Amino acid sequence: MPGSLSQTGAVLIFIAVLLAYTLQTELAQYLQQTAGYKKPYFLFYLTHSGYLLIAPLHLVSLRLLSIPIEANLRTLVAILEVHFAPPEPKTPTTPIPLPPTHRPSYSRSLSRASLPPSADEAPDRPGPGRRRTSMKRLLHSAKPKGSSAGWIARLISTVLLLTFLIAFPALSWYAAVPLTSMTDITAIYNVFAFWAYLLAIKFLGEEPSKSKLISVLVAVSGVMVIAYGDSFSSQPSRDPKDEEKASSRLFGNLLALFGSVAYASYEVWYKLHVALPDPEGGDEEAIEDEDEAEEEGEALLPSPETTGDESPYPPPLRRIASHTLSISTPTTTPLSNPSTTSFLLYSNLITALIGFFTFILFWIPIPILHYYGWEEFVAPSRATWLPILATVMCGVIFNAGFMLLLSLWGPVIASVGNLCTLVLVALADTFVPTAPGLSTASLLGSGLIVASFAGLIIGAAKAPSEKVVEEGWDEEGDDRGRATKHVEEETV
Fold first, then answer.
1. Which residue of 66, 89, 150, 413 sits 20 to 30 Å from the alpha carbon of 18, by its own alpha carbon?
2. Where is this region: Disordered (predicted)?
3. Residue 375 region, left (φ>0) first, then alpha (ψ -120 to 50), else beta?
4. Considering Cα of 347, then 348, then 350, then 354, what sign does the dihedral take?
5. Residue 272: strand, helix, or coil
């Protein structure tokens, strides 16, 4: 992303996420433990349905900032068409051998293909200064536009799955609130950073290392200390009420642990299938794909020396190539390059759609829960409506900001930063009279988690510098090899 968003803007979003999460946890604790409104499912339904507010609030902010809304909406639709384009059907036999036409990456289809021609890159005058055009991109842009039902159906199915994936950890979080302390919930829940790392190794291709594995083990040890430390350090109680309280706390901690793993799965799946690649960042996969596509374009497109009617294409492919060249350099209303506004609008649209599907689908269990007595529906009183509305708004801010950080930083780094909520919630609990005090086990377990995160951050900071040094040595060796070969050729 541009520097303004990846640095200053991302830090501001991160601070807003921390404050919103801390306030949301304290309000949820007040509603269920102090005000006695123990309706976890109904609170979940209101909070996640509140994501609907993100889209209109975003449009209002664009209007207040005098940012053109219609142009950004057109760009957003173009992004959605490319990102959620269904894979093209594979035909067993094709009369003309065409290059692969899989769905191109976001940066290749929108960023370069939509650039207007500059003075040095005239479309009708091929030469050394002209940018080579990817054949994959040309064939994709030449594809006739049919019904938009394909990408819309894929978008809807993706958001529906996201809605359920984010519902499971949220429900476990709300169900654990009346059973255990918020400090324990926050500590256990934030270990999803490590589950996200383990899943990222499997599905995102991250390289495992011993230091990261040790960090994971230390963090899990911290979770075990928080969940079970008090039972080993204290004398067994014979009071039935204390035993019942300890049993409920254990069950609440297990619910939080389940939510942690479920949320890590949601993060990795979102990053893998939904999140946009950084338009101005180093998306290595997209860059490699672009280089391969440019090589194919160089091999398949006519060279500058081709004259007359000679063409390396068969007649049908020749017509496609001539048609796509005119599309790749539009002169009327070309798509703008991916911008910060488009990136934010895309992320908030996905979050708002999650709120929409939550609103129209997740009300169904409410009468079922009421009928069986699992959670009787009771309308909130006037005293509880204000905390509920504040909880909804905090949930909107937290999830909108976290979706942005998830796209910018990835699941592991975003989860690492989210651990700071542990300290804030622990400090906030000291000012709540009804909240349980910090136990030795909670402090020790939290210290282990923080230490493991510190080791993970230090390892992540060292990795880029080591990679740069290795690449420098490789480039130096390549330069020496080329120089030696050049001297040998001159000698011969």
1. 66
2. 90-134, 280-315, 468-492
3. beta
4. positive
5. helix
